[in-house]
Amino acid sequence: MPIIKHSQFIDAPVDNFFDLARNVDIHIKTTAGTRETAVAGVTQGLLEEGDTVTWEATHFGIKQRLTAKVTYMDKPKVFVDIMLKGAFHSFTHKHQFMEESGGTIMIDTFEYKSPFGLIGLIADKIFLEKYMRRFIISRAEGLKMIAEKLTS
């Protein structure tokens, strides 16, 4: 099961950044490259523990839907979402936030299991893990840019 871990320093207060990271509208802005939009569940504003959201996006030229649920939240330190339905066999995405040097360190830990058994494992090694790592990093950089623009 691949685990992608990425840390990002953001020059913004942890409380503000935590809210940006769980904001559906901001998520849509930071995933413009995949034309991601919320189509069911919470479709705007802040996600809370117990909320679900269904995302529609284009990955690898294919329009896909994925439903995730926020299963845990400890404001402003951490929230966790899991996939309920979608292209993966399963995933858990842990978002951690730590105050440091007047800013915030965000740590994304994305653990997933590909579908299709051995074929999925081969896809992980050839392209999927790299693709997901780039996606996580791109979203973190987008969040950083928005947060720092708002606090400057």
Automatic annotation (TrEMBL):
SUPFAM superfamilies: Bet v1-like. It comes from Gracilibacillus ureilyticus. InterPro entries: START-like_dom_sf. This is Ligand-binding SRPBCC domain-containing protein. It comes from the Bacteria.
